[in-house]
Amino acid sequence: MIADHSTKSTVSIDATKAKKIWIHCNSCFEHYVNEKTVIFLLACQHVICEKCVTASLGRIPGDAPTYVCPICQKMVRGRQVNNALPSNLKGMFHPAPWHDGLPHDLIDSFQRANFKNLEKFILKKEKEEQKLDKDLLLARGVCQKQYLEQHRLRRMLRELKFRVRKISQQVKIKKRKLAQSRRAHRSISVSTKKAEKQITKHSLPELKSVPITSFVHHNNYSFDL
């Protein structure tokens, strides 16, 4: 039974708050039921929170303060919205004024204006949210493309690094082979020169020892041939 009473109490509180959800600051749209700030009903019939309104003290002690309405810019009197409101002002927030014989035309007009103002604000926020959702979807698409492109570039970079290492190894091998060829060529050149020198050295004496046959010179006989 205790649990049932607590459940009914919770539902009753929620229902009560739901009936007052339309009461909000016409400037920043802070809700009265959130109880985060003081809400004023101004004589210009705008509902403003203490954060959005500028208050001025009365000219004499005990004089009620005046407020500059941020909506219509008028200097007006105001009363805090709570259970201490005078009945004629509290009736403006009555959930069903026709049941108690209140002048519901004026009250309906006041409440309808606040409902429309709140509905306009909600629609604006919904459009902003839709735009943010579209922007978020677009941003996700761009990020996905950039991620894929980055992944592709990283793969290309890995392939290029592998090719560079492979080419470097090939260059080292070719340089080593070229150096070996040069050393072998130099060795062959040196050996060839040594061989040529040895051949020249051994062949010169043989040329000197070969006799040369010359003509035998006789006395000169003068006659016509």
UniProtKB/TrEMBL annotation:
Pfam family, one: zf-RING_5
MF annotations from Gene Ontology: SUMO transferase activity; zinc ion binding
Recorded GO CC terms: synaptonemal complex
InterPro entries the UniProt entry points to: Zip3/RNF212-like, Znf_RING, Znf_RING/FYVE/PHD, Znf_RING_CS
Keyword Nucleotide-binding carried by entry: no
Domain RING-type: 25-73
Domain of life: Eukaryota
Keywords, ordered alphabetically: Meiosis, Metal-binding, Zinc, Zinc-finger
GO biological process: homologous chromosome pairing at meiosis; protein sumoylation; reciprocal meiotic recombination
Protein name: RING-type domain-containing protein
